[in-house]
Design goal:
The protein has 141 residues and is an all-alpha fold. It is 79% helix and 0% strand.
Length: 141
């Protein structure tokens, strides 16, 4: 039950963090209707990362599994960001609209990174706390 509530709270916290980053980027870049995609992707990323880290909590060494899962997710978002930026700048000069494409690229990558980092910090902290056995002494157990 503890793992479920850990994942639930991590979902809420990371969804809030990712949403705040997306909202901040939308305000800073005067985003238009196309930015709705960023909010949808942010919610999807929050769900997927929550499920991945929920499963990682059941591994034999949950702390290592959480760290590895988070590292893979961060690497994925960095690669997606580099790929999208490369694709944006590789467009022909007449077709490319860098001023309108780069806020979307940032909006797809940065909220995902914020979501992964908040989940990693919260779930990792809760797993460390559970493994330490706080409140249990050898004589009373």
């Amino acid at each position: 039950m503890r793992k479920f509530f850990t994942s639930l709270f991590a979902f809420i916290l990371s969804g809030l963090a990712g949403g705040l980053v997306a909202q901040g980027l939308a305000v800073a870049t005067d985003a238009d209707v196309a930015y709705i995609l960023v909010f949808m992707i942010s919610a999807l990323v929050t769900i997927l990362v929550t499920v991945a880290l929920f499963i990682a909590q059941f591994m034999s060494n949950p702390q290592s599994a959480i760290n590895l899962t988070s590292l893979i997710a961060v690497a994925f978002f960095v690669l997606v960001g580099v790929g999208l930026i490369t694709w944006t700048f590789s467009q022909p000069s007449g077709k490319s609209q860098w001023s309108s494409d780069l806020p979307i690229v940032a909006g797809l990558v940065l909220p995902g990174l914020a979501t992964v980092l908040v989940q990693w910090l919260f779930v990792g902290w809760r797993v460390k706390r559970a493994q330490a056995g706080f409140g249990r002494s050898g004589a009373n157990a």
